Amino acid sequence: MKKVIGVCACPAGIAHTYMAAESLERFAKKLGFNVKIETNGSAGVENRLTEQDINEADFVIIAADTKVEMERFRGKPLLECSVSDAIRKVEDIFKKIEKDELKKF
Amino acid sequence: MRLIDTNIILLDSNDRTKEQVMHTITELLHKDNRILSKELFKSDLLEREIEASTSMGFGIAIPHTQSHQVKDSSIVFIKLKKAIKWNGDDVKLIFGIAVPYENVDNIHLKILSKLARKLMVDEFRTALQNINSKDDAIRELAFINEEMINGV
Q1: Is A101 within the bounds of a domain?
Q2: What is the full per-residue pLDDT of chain B (152 aa) written as tens digits?
Q3: Domain boundary assignment for chain B
Q4: Are A23 and B112 a contacting pair at CB < 8 A?
Q5: Min CA distance, A75 vs chain B (Å)?
Q6: Taking the domain B6-150, which CATH number applies?
Q7: For residue A45, what is the domain's CATH number?
Q8: Domain count, chain A
Q9: Which of A68, B20, B47, B135 is most deeply buried (CB count within 10 A of its CB)?
């Protein structure tokens, strides 16, 4: 099973961060991916990605409107988008993943 | 004070613009004694909106702020009579979320994150669209208050 990981973060971090995370998780599961999404919200960092998560991951999605700690994803096929894209255009994101269109970070 | 309450639910609102909705949210919260300064609260709400639109698609917008003007965490629920334009989206349902700046416990934020996640579930959104009375609204959103009591 392929593993997709990601980080969601938005300015206030009260609502949209979590919607984006839920959206990515649901769609990934529907497509049969193993998935883990970290949220950087007002309640702090939840579901933090471990080194093992990152090592095991085949793809990384960064859905953020604020700065995210990026160096940890060096060398991974990675897609960056807005939080809103993860909520509204989640199909497009996974289309790119399935077509293997992600560039190495 | 409960996060969601009949006093801060408004159905069949006639608001025609995003700015009017922000005004209504502020008025409802002020009438229910949940915020300090109306002017400052509204400006905090608008400031977040300017950073990035809080319309999430699906006809729902979630203007929100964590503000010094908020006394008690609150979720305003507004259903508009007619959908309005909100940064290019047609919006009919609005959750106005107000959280105190000094948020000592994280329970409110956790509950809000749960509501946010639930909004991604088709069945929940359909139930929200079918709300026609305050009783309906309370029934659909009761889980928020219940979790407040039980803790998350």
Answers
A1: no
A2: 888 999 999 999 999 999 999 999 999 999 999 999 999 999 999 998 888 788 888 999 999 888 999 999 899 999 999 999 999 999 999 999 998 987 656 777 787 888 999 999 999 999 999 999 999 999 999 888 877 666 54
A3: 6-150
A4: no
A5: 30
A6: 3.40.930.10
A7: 3.40.50.2300
A8: 1
A9: A68
Nearest by CB to residue B117, choosing from A10, A22, A83, is A22
Minimum-distance CB partner of B106 among A17, A23, A43: A43
**A97 assigned to some structural domain:** no
Ranges assigned E (strand) in B68-132: 74-86, 89-100
Cβ contact B52–A84 (<8 Å): yes
Q: Which two tokens stand for residue A73?
A: 């994803």
Subunit contact A14:B51, Cβ cutoff 8 A: no
Residue A43 sits in which domain range? 3-89
Residues of B within 8 A of A19 (CB-CB) are: 56, 116-117, 119-120
The 3 state secondary structure assigned to chain B is CCCCCHHHEEEEECCCCHHHHHHHHHHHHHHCCCECCHHHHHHHHHHHHHHCCCECCCCEECCEEEECCECCCEEEEEEEEEEEEECCEEEEEEEEEEEECCCCCCHHHHHHHHHHHHCCCHHHHHHHHCCCCHHHHHHHHHHHHHHHHHCC
